[in-house]
Design brief:
The chain is of the alpha+beta class and 153 residues long. It has three helices and seven strands. Helix 2 crosses helix 3.
Length: 153
């Protein structure tokens, strides 16, 4: 039987993918005490990279969609680490990195794609502190990468 969070995901029409393996020498998650630290999740869906530089060859809506996919990938890592998504008590902090052209300044609008989905899925427990940072490049030319810290039961 699925839990509350999984029921919410199903109601939103979201299928959580298998968590991706690390692309280098790191682990996808680290649990310490009642916190789960999740390594940066890139904008990849069904094996297809969501690429592009915001303000150059990608617009804010494409960036929001990429950030939303990062949220789905963060949830996949939560599921892999915890087994039960109802163990998530609170999303504490997000750091969103946006592949940005030099004059692009709408990083917060882009990272809202991730933040909005986490609030939709976890309710008030999905509200979090956040940074939205523009960067010159991201791995594989993806548009967005987001890391997270969550409090767990």
């Amino acid at each position: 039987m699925s839990g509350t969070v999984e029921s919410k995901l199903a109601a939103l029409g979201i299928v959580i993918p298998t968590a991706t393996a690390p692309a280098a020498n790191y682990v996808p998650t680290v649990q310490t005490g009642n916190q789960l630290w999740i390594s940066g999740q890139i904008s990849i869906a069904n094996g297809v990279l969501m690429t592009g530089k915001l303000g150059d060859d990608a617009d804010v809506e494409a960036g929001r969609a990429a950030a939303r996919q990062c949220a789905i990938n963060l949830i996949a890592q939560m599921k892999a680490a915890l087994g039960d998504l109802d163990r998530v008590k609170r999303v504490v902090k997000l750091v969103g990195f946006v592949n940005s052209a030099p004059d692009f300044t709408d990083q917060p609008k882009v990272v809202n794609g991730c933040s909005d989905l986490l609030v939709d899925v976890f309710g008030d427990a999905g509200r979090h502190a956040r940074s939205a940072v523009g960067v010159a490049a991201l791995p594989f030319n993806v548009s967005v990468e987001v890391e997270a810290v969550v409090e767990i039961a």
